[in-house]
């Protein structure tokens, strides 16, 4: 089920005017920031369909910026987020894209700093709830209902076992897991939904495991 | 976990529980949280709603100037005249519109189930409360009952205008409020379901056609429609009127209608009222002055 809490329906507390276009957009921005691991220096944000047609009126632009700055949906600085981003040396470019997409409220974000970047697609499904449906070209379905660890790794023997062994030792239970790869022996993505937020020290340990390239976490 | 209104009502009836209690227990179970934690979070939402209404009744105006001040006009009218539709109904309308005026002015609100429809549930609650005199706990329960019904809609259909039109937003919000009013007034879980069905039936087909793509025109006044219909349907259900089409089937109809709606009528600001001469003119004026 897409919605699993009463607070998805009665909530979130937020700055208006739209739960999909403002609160949801802020949450997509924040998820992107979390997945990148720090505040990016630049962002290219592509908007589609209803996001593309109404982003100015709904404040989708400042909400996405607010999310990238780490704002929660009820942060009163939200409507000033574009200015605050500039002050914080975060350069954001918005691009209206007319390509057909699966969901009417879709945004594609490419964010990065001088050395690294990530690309992801987020959809805002209603009432402020969002899903991340693509990361670095890998399809996924990340609801944000649970904390998650995302691991870019090489498709090699033992890569998955090396990760699950560490999680088991720290008594972290895996609720849902999926593995995707570009081709045999090439880049792959592991998405692991867990029951509790994972400490940074454990993430460090995971990062040093065999065949692992990059790790990100999503806090629920 | 309940998936349908039928299952929700059955869970309540089987153990002689209120709908709100079924929702509270499910939230505790799924999220592994204590009753106190769940209650406290909902109480915070209630407080946000109360504060938004208070702000609205002092008078607010949106950045564009398109909306604001109507809640105050209605309150003044109620003091000076005897409203034809009655004080309770008009008070709900004023508070629902007021909450949405605060939303349009980029104030703080609680989405119920969305921001565009955020006036209906609190508007009805803070009006009905003057006649039913609920405890604070019962007011919190009102939100859990609304949430329980909204939960079913969100998982079986949609609650966003971009996905399903205004019927999915104000339609859902009005129907949720109907069900909660019935519980607060002492009706049965089944009567809540009947009230929900009757409100949503009368909102089917409602499109999302915001002028200039802004959550202002006609959103604020649609919150008036949703809240007044919520109260009327609740009264009908409490009187013993039932819906010939069962609640879950009405939700199914809402979903199929939304699927058939063209994108111009789903929050793109391209069709309906947005595409009237005045709607287009307002859009030009607003974006000309760079909002």
UniProtKB/TrEMBL annotation, chain A:
Keyword vocabulary terms for this entry: 4Fe-4S, Gluconeogenesis, Iron, Iron-sulfur, Lyase, Metal-binding
ACT domain segment(s): 148-220
Keyword Transferase applies: no
Pathways per UniProt: Carbohydrate biosynthesis; gluconeogenesis
GO terms of molecular function: 4 iron, 4 sulfur cluster binding; L-serine ammonia-lyase activity; metal ion binding
GO biological process: gluconeogenesis
CDD domains referenced in this protein's UniProt entry, alphabetically: ACT_LSD (cd04903)
Cofactors, names only: [4Fe-4S] cluster
Catalytic activity: L-serine = pyruvate + NH4(+)
Cross-referenced InterPro entries: ACT-like_dom_sf (IPR045865), ACT_dom (IPR002912), ASB_dom_sf (IPR029009), Fe-S_L-Ser (IPR051318), Fe-S_L-Ser_bsu (IPR004643), Ser_deHydtase_bsu (IPR005131)
UniProt-listed SUPFAM superfamilies: ACT-like, Serine metabolism enzymes domain
NCBIfam families: sda_beta
Similarity comment: Belongs to the iron-sulfur dependent L-serine dehydratase family.
The protein's name in its UniProt record: L-serine deaminase
Organism: Virgibacillus profundi
Gene it is expressed from: sdaAB
UniProtKB/TrEMBL annotation, chain B:
Keywords: 4Fe-4S, Gluconeogenesis, Iron, Iron-sulfur, Lyase, Metal-binding
GO biological process: gluconeogenesis
Record field: catalytic activity: L-serine = pyruvate + NH4(+)
Domain of life, source organism: Bacteria
Top-level enzyme category: lyase
Annotated Serine dehydratase-like alpha subunit domain residues: 15-274
Molecular function (Gene Ontology), one example: 4 iron, 4 sulfur cluster binding
One Pfam family linked to the record: SDH_alpha
Reported cofactor(s): [4Fe-4S] cluster
EC number: 4.3.1.17
Keyword flag Metal-binding: yes
Pathway membership: Carbohydrate biosynthesis; gluconeogenesis
Protein family per UniProt: Belongs to the iron-sulfur dependent L-serine dehydratase family.
Protein name listed in UniProt: L-serine dehydratase
């Amino acid at each position: 089920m897409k919605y699993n809490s009463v607070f998805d329906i009665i909530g979130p507390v937020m700055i208006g005017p739209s739960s999909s276009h403002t609160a949801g957009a802020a949450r997509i921005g924040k998820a992107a920031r979390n997945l990148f691991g720090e505040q990016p220096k630049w962002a290219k944000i592509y908007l589609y369909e209803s996001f593309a047609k109404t982003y100015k009126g709904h404040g989708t632009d400042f909400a996405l910026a607010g999310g990238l700055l780490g704002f929660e949906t009820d942060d009163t600085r939200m409507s000033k987020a574009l200015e605050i981003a500039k002050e914080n040396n975060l350069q954001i470019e918005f691009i209206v894209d007319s390509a057909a997409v699966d969901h009417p409220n879709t945004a594609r974000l490419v964010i990065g700093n001088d050395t690294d970047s990530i690309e992801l697609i987020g959809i805002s499904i209603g009432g402020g709830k969002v899903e991340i449906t693509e990361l670095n070209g890998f399809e996924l379905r990340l609801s944000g209902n649970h904390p998650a660890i995302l691991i870019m790794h090489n498709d090699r023997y033992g890569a998955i076992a090396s990760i699950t062994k560490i999680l088991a030792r720290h008594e972290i239970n895996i609720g849902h897991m999926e593995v995707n790869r570009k081709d045999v022996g090439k880049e792959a993505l592991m998405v692991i939904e867990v029951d509790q937020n994972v400490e940074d020290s454990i993430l460090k340990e995971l990062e040093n495991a065999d065949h692992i390239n990059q790790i990100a976490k999503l806090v629920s | 976990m309940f998936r349908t209104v039928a299952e929700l009502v059955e869970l309540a009836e089987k153990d002689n529980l209120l709908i709100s209690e079924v929702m509270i227990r499910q939230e505790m179970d799924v999220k592994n949280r204590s009753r106190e934690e769940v209650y406290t979070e909902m109480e915070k939402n209630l407080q946000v709603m109360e504060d938004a209404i208070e702000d609205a009744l002092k008078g607010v105006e949106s950045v564009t100037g398109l909306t604001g001040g109507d809640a105050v006009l209605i309150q003044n009218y109620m003091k000076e005249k005897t409203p034809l539709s009655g004080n309770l109904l008009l008070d709900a309308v004023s508070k629902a519109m007021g909450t949405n005026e605060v939303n349009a002015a980029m104030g703080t609100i609680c989405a119920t189930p969305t921001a565009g429809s955020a006036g209906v549930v609190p508007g009805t609650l803070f009006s009905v409360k003057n006649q039913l005199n609920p405890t604070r706990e019962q007011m919190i329960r009102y939100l859990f009952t609304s949430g329980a019904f909204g939960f079913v809609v969100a998982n079986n259909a949609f609650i966003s205008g971009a996905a399903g039109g205004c019927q999915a937003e104000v339609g859902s919000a009005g129907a949720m409020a109907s069900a909660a009013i019935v519980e607060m007034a002492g009706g049965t879980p089944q009567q809540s379901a009947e009230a929900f069905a009757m409100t949503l039936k009368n909102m089917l087909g409602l499109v999302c056609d915001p002028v200039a793509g802004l959550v202002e025109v006609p959103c604020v006044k649609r919150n008036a429609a949703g809240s007044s219909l919520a109260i009327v349907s609740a009264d009908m259900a409490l009187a013993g009127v039932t819906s010939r089409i069962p609640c879950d089937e009405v939700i199914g109809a809402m979903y199929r209608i939304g699927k058939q709606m063209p994108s111009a009528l789903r929050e793109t600001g391209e069709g309906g009222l947005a595409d009237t001469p005045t709607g287009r003119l307002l859009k030009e004026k607003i974006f000309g002055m760079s909002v």
